[in-house]
């Protein structure tokens, strides 16, 4: 089934630890995005990539990094997790003007 | 001020009611308008998509865009308990051949009770 796969589905992480959230798409979409969703704040863009080899910062990029080595994969790394990064993280992709396709999300709790 | 404003609700209606969900925006360059539906503990899924001003109907759902007022709406007729979800509006300038960045409202939580 075509779409976006995110892993892990949930994680409890100790503060200060490093973690990479994985995102893979099989639709050959050029653009990919990482959002975090928090109650009352909605979806906020962390980082994006318009095409393989390029990345850009969204509205809340601090504490996060991304890479885009190929079209299909767009991992998000938390170098040293803090409790304020507790959130639900969604990866999305877009292949033109047809809207975004979202993954099922990763629920991250930093303790 | 956020670029897209949406009343978070919650909104609770009986089965069969007509539901109206709304968003306002400030960026006059937006020309692509979408509604996403998000069930609990799931990712958002595209529900309706419209370009520029006008109406679009898909079954029980109607999306309206009024660019002169910077106001978009989603109407749900004959609402069902299965419509219970969070509804997010989203919009984009759409530069070149791509959609570009989507700007989302905060979402309205809807409950339809039987």
What does this structure look like?
The complex is a heterodimer of chains A (111) and B (114). Chain A contains no helices and eleven strands. Chain A has 111 residues and is mostly beta strands. The model of chain A has no long low-confidence stretch (mean pLDDT 94). With 114 residues, chain B is mainly β. Helices cover 0% and strands 54% of the residues of chain B. In chain B, strands 2, 4, 5, 9, 10 and 11 form a six-stranded mixed β-sheet that branches. A five-stranded antiparallel β-sheet of chain B has the order 1-3-8-7-6, with no helix packed on it. The N and C termini of chain B lie far apart (37 Å). Chains A and B meet through strand 5 and strand 10 of A and strand 4 and strand 5 of B.
- Chain pair sharing the greatest interface: A-B, 24 and 25 residues
Helix-strand category of chain A: mainly beta
What is the gyration radius of chain B calculated from CA atoms? 14 Å
Query: How many beta-strand runs of chain A?
Result: 11
Strand content of chain A: over 45%
Number of helices of chain A: 0
End-to-end CA span of chain A: 35 Å
| Mean pLDDT figure of chain B | 92
Distance between the terminal alpha carbons of chain B, to the nearest Å?
A: 37 Å
């Amino acid at each position: 089934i075509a779409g976006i796969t995110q892993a892990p589905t949930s994680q409890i992480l100790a503060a200060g630890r490093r973690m990479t959230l994985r995102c893979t798409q099989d639709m050959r979409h050029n653009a990919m995005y990482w959002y975090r969703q928090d109650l009352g704040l909605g979806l906020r863009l962390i980082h994006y990539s318009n095409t393989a080899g390029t990345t850009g910062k969204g509205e809340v990029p601090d504490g996060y990094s991304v890479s885009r080595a190929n079209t299909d994969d767009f991992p998000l790394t938390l170098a040293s997790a803090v409790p304020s990064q507790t959130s639900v993280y969604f990866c999305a992709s877009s292949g033109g003007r047809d809207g975004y396709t979202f993954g099922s999300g990763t629920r991250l709790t930093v303790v | 001020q956020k670029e897209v404003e949406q009343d978070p609700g919650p909104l609770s209606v009986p089965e069969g009611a007509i539901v109206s969900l709304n968003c306002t925006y400030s960026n006059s360059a937006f020309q692509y308008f979408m509604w996403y539906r998000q069930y609990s503990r799931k990712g958002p899924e595209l529900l309706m998509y419209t370009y520029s001003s006008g109406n679009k109907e898909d079954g029980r759902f109607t999306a309206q865009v009024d660019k002169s007022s910077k106001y978009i709406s989603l109407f749900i007729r004959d609402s069902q308990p299965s419509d219970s979800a969070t509804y997010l509006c989203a919009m984009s300038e759409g530069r070149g051949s791509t959609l570009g960045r989507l700007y989302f409202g905060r979402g309205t939580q809807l409950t339809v009770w039987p």
